[in-house]
Amino acid sequence: MKIVIYDGTCGLCSRSLRLLIKLDTHKTFRYTSLQGKFVKTLPLNTDIDSIVFYDEGTLYYKSSAILKILRSLGGFWNMVTLFYVIPRFIRDAAYDVVAKYRYRFFKPQQCHMISVQEQELFLE
Questions:
Q1: Closest among 100, 104, 91, 26 to 65, alpha carbons compared
Q2: With contact defined as beta carbons under 8 Å apart, do 78 and 71 qualify?
Q3: I want to staple 64 with a disulfide (CB 3.0 to 4.6 A). Which of 50, 60, 89, 122 is the partner?
Q4: Cβ-count burial of 14 within 10 angstroms (0-12 exposed, 13-18 middle, 19+ buried)?
């Protein structure tokens, strides 16, 4: 199972989640927030401040999570594989800069409002 774990109070995360749901035409992913029950069953730090991608028992964080998610969409998105030539510490540093300022540029929100059609995609 492929699960996207996002910050349920982040405006950027909420917008990104809506876009990902539209792009995921094959309904590959399931979704839950960092504040959700499923996350408590995973070996995550309680102070994690990153997108997390859970894929077949493996956890990916920050830029690696984003690249794995996009690559899982297939097709055109397989081109993101090119970004793996950039060392992870550099990719994650760029991720950290965006994460640091996300609340400043994107107003904090409550969880993404789930439509009836999307309910099956969310774990809780």
A1: 91
A2: yes
A3: 60
A4: buried
Convert the pLDDT of each residue in 44-73 to its tens digit: 876 787 899 999 999 999 999 999 999 999
Question: In whole angstroms, how far apart are CA 22 and each of 29, 44, 80, 86?
Answer: 11, 28, 18, 28
Q: From the DSSP assignment, how many helices (H) and strands (E) are in the chain? A: 3, 4
Q: Are 62 and 87 in contact (CB under 8 A)?
A: no
Alpha helix ranges (H) inside the chain: 11-23, 62-72, 88-105
Cα–Cα dist 12/108, whole Å = 8
Q: CB–CB of 33/5 below 8 Å?
A: yes
Domains in the chain: boundaries:
2-116
